[in-house]
Write a structure and sequence with these properties.
Oligomer: single chain
Number of domains: 1
CATH architecture: Orthogonal Bundle
Shape: elongated
Strand content: under 5%
Distance between the termini: 32 Å
Length: 74
């Protein structure tokens, strides 16, 4: 499940209104609404603020990119 889907699920189950979330996080209410409906994404700063408000630990991992030297080698 994508991070954005997980955040939407937690937003929906939080019992908080978009107004309350916007007030607590400083994220524009219109931006939250668009995110909630899948019309836009959020900045990492906004994701962090939502995580703090909802009591979530946001952890991301990136797969390392193959270096140009290692391409084609086995």
């Amino acid at each position: 499940m994508k991070l954005s889907d997980q955040l939407r699920r937690h937003l929906d189950s939080s019992g908080l209104t978009m107004y309350a979330i916007a007030k607590e996080t400083g994220i524009d209410q219109a931006s939250l609404g668009k995110f909630r409906h899948g019309e836009r994404g959020l900045s990492w700063d906004a994701v962090d603020k939502l995580g703090d408000l909802l009591g979530l630990k946001i952890v991301t991992t990136k797969k390392p990119k193959a270096s140009p030297q290692s391409k084609g080698k086995k």
